[in-house]
Structure prediction request, 420 residues.
Amino acid sequence: MTVKQDQLANGFRIVSEHMPGLQSAAIGIWVTAGGRHERIEQNGIAHFLEHMAFKGTERRSALEIAEAIEDVGGYINAYTSREVTAYYARVLKDDVALAMDVIGDIVMNPVFDPREIEVERGVILQEIGQSHDTPDDVIFDWLQEESYRDQPLGRTILGPTERVSAFSREDLAGFVAEHYGPEQMILSAAGAVDHEQLMKLVEEMFGHLQPRKGLIADPARFTGGEARREKALEQAHFALALESPGYRDDTIYTAQIYSSALGGGMSSRLFQEVREVRGLCYTIFAQTGAYADTGSTTIYAGTSAGQVEELAGITIDEMKRAAEDMSPEEVARARAQMKAGMLMGLESPSNRAERLARLVQIWGKVPSLEETVAKIDAVTTADVRDFAEDMAVKAPAALALYGPIAAAPTLAQLQERRAA
Prediction:
């Protein structure tokens, strides 16, 4: 398997990887235009725009977009994150040109029919309402807001109801004009693809676009803070975030190994102590997420009202203990899980295409798998213990609590326990 990468004169980037033996291909366009690129009055518009891409173009109706891909047995979808919006499809190898045509069409030629805008507005408002009714979804929005208070990175991807209710056709078109230039786009493909064929198609579809610099996202600052929402739920939901490195920092590998050993699986410390030994919860996990210039290690659990104080205290104690006695065996297991998860995921052309796009966005190139594996293997037990000490004692923190939380400790109380 060989990665090939090119760039048009206008800055549009193309990356692909042929995977021998496959009969299908994944292909998509990743645009550096996510939630953190919105001004406050635009919050939610990147996600709204993603929805509208499927509601009709100058050449196809909404139904014709769906039929074009589904008539050949493929599927098409999109998502919005805080740093990118992606439009992608999976098709058989003979239909790659068709998939490219459809994706290029929905990205470049949306008509923003006023009637369709109103229909989709209703869909998105229902999506927002559904998220508010899902405690283990909404708590992470609150945690993000407290982690990056008064910043684009701290706002929800869906946006608030009042803003989504007011977006106009001009607002949508304006966001496209600001952020959908060729230098903000990456076409990524993996599977049964031919790079030279892709280059010809890309040149035809996107070569005419005039280069224009996109707006630069404001640097992020992890502020920390606390959100508490009392509600009569069955469980008290607890989420703690600690500032961690961004994905351009090699310490990210240490952070990910640490969170895996702490709470990444059934053998992890938090799962064993909090669930298996003490029976305080059904769900508990730790994970590390990263952005271009910041990141966070997050711990989440749901428990009963009477046990949330104990659970929070044990979580801090386990974090402190990890700094003292994290074993080589635990680190080796976490390294193996990280490598296996990455390599198994890359057996899917969809996952591989997404990885290629993200690496080009981050680094401007695709580092080899061997290079990435070597960085994972280079993380030592001492590295993980040092990182664990920072997480347990020094790192800025944010806390979100939801449900019957009257007995839950405050962030200040948890900070005191960290410092003790």
